[in-house]
Amino acid sequence: MPDASGPELKTPALPYTDEVKAKTDHLYPRVAKSIPEIEWRVMAPYIAAINDLKKEKNAVILAHNYMTPEIFYCVGDFAGDSLQLAKEAAKSDADVIVQAGVHFMAETSKILCPDKTVLIPDPKAGCSLASSITGADVRLLKQKYPGVPVVTYVNTTADVKAETDICCTSSNAVEVVEHAAKEFGTDTVILIPDQFLARNVAAMTDIKIVTWAGACEVHERFTAEDIREIREGNPGVIVLAHPECPPDVLAEADFAGSTSGMSNYVKENQPNNVVLITECSMSDNVALENPNVNFVRPCNLCPYMKMISLPKILRSLQTMEHEVTIDPEIIEKARRPIERMIALPLKRQSMYNHQHAPEVAAVEARS
Ligand code: SF4
C-alpha cells in the first residue's frame, strides 16, 4: 500500500448557495436525525459538488457500513459490507469507482473490476488486520502446513488473496472453512489473518484451525466487562457483536454476526433497545433506518475509515487520485479465491452461538 497521500487537503469551505440548497434539500431528511442543520450547511456544498462530478465522470461511490451518515446516505451509490460493495461495482456500468472505505476494499474492487478506474480518497486509509500479514507470510505458512487449505478473510491485501485457496467473510466463515476441509480432504484449515474470527469459527466447527496473530484494532478493544457494564446500565438491552471481537465478548452477546447480519437483525426484530458492538458509525447508519429502535452507543472509531471525508472524496473525483493499481498477474490469482467463495452454494449465515471452546490448533506470527 502507498505510504503517503500527498499534502493534506486544503480545500476551502464551499459556500452554501441557493443552487446547493436546491440540489441537496431532498437528501437532508435521510440524515436529519444525525446531522444538525448548522453542520448540514457545511456538508451540503460538498455533497452537491460530488454528486455533480459523479454524473460528469460516470463514477459510482461505494460506501462501507462504517462511513459517516453524510457519506453513507448522501453520496454513496451502493452501501454495505466490503464484498457486497465490490459485487455491486462489478455489475455497474460506471467507468470510475470511488471507494469510500479502506485500501484493501479498493483493491478488492479493482480485482473484481480490473477494467475500471478505482480511486481511494486517502491511500493511508489502511487496516490493522490487512497490514498484519503479507503474501510472503502466507507462502511460509503453506510450506509449514503442506496440503492444508488456506482460507483468507476478505480484509486482506491483493498479495495475500493471491496466495489463497478460498476467501471468506465474517458472514460465511464457518461454512467456507467446512467446505475447504471437505474439498481438500483435511481435518485442518488455515484461517487468516484474524485470530479472533478464527477462534469464533473454531467454536462452531470440529475442523482444526491454524490462524495468524492479526486483529482488528477496533473490535479487539471490546471486553466482556464492557458488555456486562452496558447491560447493568441499560436493563433489557439486546447486544449484537461482530465476530472480529474476542470470544468472551461474543459469549456475552445475544447475537453475533457480520455488519449485514447485525443490520438485518435490527430490521427484522425491531428491539426496543440495542447495542452494536462494532465501529460506531454503523450504529448511526442503522439507527437512521430504524427510527423506533433506541441505540446504546459505546464508541470505538476506526481511525482508517475516518480518514475518508467529503472533501477528500471531492478532491479524488476532481484530480482522479489516488488510483489503485495492482499487477495484472496478482489480479488474476487474487480473483480466483474470491470467485470460488461467491460460487459456493451457501445456505445460511454464520451465527457464532458457540458450541465448543474457542480453541485454535495454532496461532502463527511473523518470526
Ligand atoms: S474496523 Fe478493523 S477490520 Fe475494519 S478497516 Fe478498521 S481496523 Fe480494519
What do these coordinates show?
By secondary structure, the protein is an alpha/beta fold. It contains 16 helices and 13 strands. It folds into 3 domains: 18-128 and 304-319, Rossmann fold (3-Layer(aba) Sandwich), CATH 3.40.50; 130-214 and 328-364, Rossmann fold (3-Layer(aba) Sandwich), CATH 3.40.50; 219-296, 3-Layer(aba) Sandwich (Rossmann fold). It has a 5-stranded parallel β-sheet, sandwiched between helices. Helix 5 (82-91) packs parallel to helix 6. The protein is globular and about 65 Å long. The protein starts with 17 loop residues before the first helix and ends with a strand. 50% of the residues are buried. Residues 1-10 have low confidence and may be disordered. The chain binds iron/sulfur cluster. The site of iron/sulfur cluster has 12 residues, from loops.
Topology:
Blueprint: H1 18-24, H2 28-31, H3 37-57, E1 59-64, H4 69-74, E2 78-80, H5 82-91, E3 96-100, H6 103-112, E4 117-119, H7 135-144, E5 150-153, H8 158-161, E6 166-168, H9 173-184, E7 188-192, H10 195-202, E8 208-212, H11 224-233, E9 238-241, H12 247-252, E10 255-256, H13 259-269, E11 273-277, H14 280-289, E12 294-296, H15 310-319, H16 328-343, E13 362-364
Parallel strand pairs: 1-2, 1-3, 3-4, 5-6, 5-7, 7-8, 8-13, 9-10, 9-11, 11-12
Helix pairs in contact: 1-3, 3-15, 5-6, 6-16
